[in-house]
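Posted in: Structural Biology > Protein-Ligand Complexes

Title: Requesting predicted complex, BES in pocket

I'd be grateful if someone could produce the 3D structure tokens for the following input. Sequence and ligand are given below.
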Amino acid sequence: MKVSVKRGTVLQENVDAILVGIHENGTGFSPLVQEINRLLSRSISKVLERKGFTGKPEQIEVIGTGGAIPAAYVFLCGLGKAEKAGLEQVRQAMGRASLRAKEMGLKTLATSTATFGFRLEGVPIKDVGYAMAEGAILGLYRFSKYKVKEDTNSRNIEELRVVEEERNGVREAEEGVIQGRIVAESVNFARDLINHPANDMTPAILAETAKRMAAANKIKCTVLSRPQIGRLGMGAFLGVAKGSQEPPKFIILEYNGGKRGGKPIVVVGKSITFDSGGISLKPSEGMGKMKYDMSGGAITLGVLRAASMLRLPLNLVGLLPATENMPSGTASRPGDVLRSMSGRTIEIISTDAEGRLALADALFYATRYKPRWIIDIATLTGACVVALGNHATGMLGNDEELKERVVKAGEKAWERVWEMPLWDDYFEQIKSPIADMKNSGGREGGVMTAAILLSKFVEGYPWVHLDIAGVAWNDKERAYSPVGASAIGVRLIAQLLMDACS
Ligand code: BES
Ligand code: MN
Ligand code: ZN
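-- Reply #1 --
Done. Output follows.
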């Protein structure tokens, strides 16, 4: 779908449908809606009087225009109560509306920032355009690669046209639409990788995908293979990889958009392409979902793609320790002790606590860059799912300023984070009688004991850890995120980076 911006009057556009925003509970119409209402002999007012459609968030009502205007339909899109309205309601309404239009087989849509941004006090047109593009592009996403018999492309929307009355509006909306599109398409790029089954998203395939993405976006990509990883001394990461027939890959991406020699920001993504648990085998029920254990890596690739396409003036590094976690005769055992690249030793309690092992070496590798910030993102613990459910990403870190920035970016992107304590006390639980630490502290405080282990490998650097175990996969469809990979984290980190540049 193309998202375009032009100067003009929405009402005169010759499109299949015009999308307008309506607030809940009679808080008044935007001028555009008033005008449509008049031209369609008060049919919008009549719909609202019937009370089937009230303007609640995510509600959509389709009205036929009967030729009163060039467009065949007007979509009323619920934005919720005016006092609660924000950019998230814009995204949701856009997501729902574009999906409905697609289901109806429509091809061209027109709208304006004035109708969706109505009553959004102090929000720039640019941000509204950004959110509209995001909502539509994210909402239309479907993963249909393996549906060979269904022709899913015949019903695609060709164009969403944002029509602005004023020249400044056009310029601002355009800026927002371009950026929103880049970020949303980067999210969909990450979703695609995550949704792939593990047989088609092995570490080697992930590495090839990273290389292709990098080559298309002026990003340097280096892939280290097992012997090279071994020479670096990444014994923790290799301890996870040992059980698998699929060779591990350590994927390094470098985007240099900032000053030469400027301290980079390093993003590290957990990239377990399948987590069976290893010798500490997971129960078989629902195990197939563990193909999503490379979400962090896919999100990292999405962030690099977005940063490069947005030409952000900063230096950015992405690190993906990619491997499967499999049981076999060559697999690590509970009780084994691994020597990490940092020299610290880790006793394996559970081979299912593999993410922190892979991340420990990747995080330590990150410190080689003397980075400004290190951000890791990982489907790390079931405990995080229990603690925060499906609505918040767990955040722990060692730097107040960085954490504050992440919280703000999360609110803006509506990929919200919730801080959990990174207190030294939690280290007690992972003290080992035989090694420097152990890889599991038991059931209690699982989010914190995982994070405190990671913290030992980034000492001296501002670092934040994002546990996305609860939010990375939608079991149920959401307004602009279908069942499957959410890739939550791309928009959060992209926002953090954009804010760091302004
Ligand atoms: N990838 C899982 C975390 C996970 C579990 C995410 C369930 C989403 C749903 C991770 O590798 C894992 O298995 N963690 C263990 C750690 C434990 C053995 C200390 C867990 O959370 O059960
Ligand atoms: Mn595991
Ligand atoms: Zn895992």
